[in-house]
Structures are given as C-alpha cells and as structure tokens.
Amino acid sequence: MHLYRYTFLIILLSASCKSDKERRDELPDTPGRGTITISADESFKPIVDELVKVYESNNFGTKINVQYKPEADCIKDLWNDSIRMVISTIVLTERESRKISDSLKVTVDQLPVARDAIAVIVHPGSKETEFDMNDIRNILAGTYSRPLTPVFDGVKATSSVRYIVDSVMKGAKLTNRAVAARTSDSVINYVAQNPNAIGFVGVSWIGNPDDENQSSFLKKLKFAV
Prior knowledge:
Blueprint (H helix, E strand, L loop, with lengths): L1 E13 L5 H7 L6 E9 L3 H14 L2 E9 L1 H10 L4 E4 L5 H11 L1 E17 L10 H9 L7 E4 L6 H10 L10 E2 L3 H10 L3 E6 L9 H7 L3 E2 L2
Parallel strand pairs: 2-3, 2-4, 6-7, 6-8
Antiparallel strand pairs: 1-4, 1-5, 5-8, 5-9
C-alpha cells in the first residue's frame, strides 16, 4: 500500500539588480563548477544520493553537500540563510515566501519535481497485509481491531508524520502507541523485529529491488496492500 504525495524544490535566488556579468564575477559557482549546500528531507535520501552521484559524475567540477534532516529543520535552514535549496514536500504559502524574500533579500522559487509515496510495511511473518484507508486511520488512531503499533521516522517535524496527520487523519491525534524511530532505516529494522509493528516509510527507501541495500531491506519485511 502506498500513500502518495508530491515532492517540491524550494530555491533561493539572488534578488540583486546587478547585471548578469556582475553576478557572474561575484558568484564563481555555475551549473558545471562550484560547491553548493542543500537541505533535503531524510525520507528522500536514497533517491537524492543517486541524483547527486549522477550530477557530479557528469559535472566533474561540482560538489553538492546534502544535509539530510526532518522536514521542519530543512525549512528552518531557509530562514537561517544557511542553504540555497530545500527538497521537501512542503509548499510555502505566498505570505511565507514574501517574508523570506523581505528578510533575506532574495526571491523564492518553488516547483514540483516528483510524485512520491509513503509505503506501508509489516513484519515478514505477518498474516495480515491487506488494509483499506479506514483500517489505516483506525491503526493510526489506536482503534483498530488488533493492537498494531504505528512506526514513523520521528513523531514530529518529519514529512511522513505531517502527511499522515494532515492528509490521512485530517488533523486527528495519533495513538499514544506510535513509535518514533530515529531514521527511515530504523523504521524498517523496527518493523522487521516486532511482529505487531506497522511502519510508514518513504518508498524511495525500499522501492528499488536492484539496489543492494534496498534488496536487503526487502528481505526483512512485507508490503501492505
């Protein structure tokens, strides 16, 4: 079972009125040369790692430093003016974009780049793998017929939890039984070791059977459908 969401880039662009030549003289970075630091939602790490690897291999003079964090911390980096791009599922409101532009004297550009999903995973020995959306909501609220334990990559500040609460539960409270794992791979390992656990993890962590790490993950769990 997959719960679909969109991935966005938020890019800070210079708002200077200087000429193109003046900006090029001041900024040595180009698409083919230089170093950039960006923040990315941790749930996208496998796919972002691959994208960075391909880009750097095609542009030998470039270096992309990616800081993987909970989504809320990525957005904080925008306000701190410590990065130039964020990869997350958040869309800034017009008011938020304007406040960042006014504060940092930059323009903010946002664009959707992909459709992502949250995969629902269960213990490899689980006999129960079929759930509808009503089942999922009951599991998350703690009212399901079996005492299943929802497991997330943190219980706050992450895109997975925000999406579950906002779009699946419509703002309802998560069960107190929910477990906060430190990272996405920790979610996978927790589910693999606990028969009553049901995990929610970015599909990019387990969606590629040709990836050696993901192939090892897939041996530890089952997909819910």
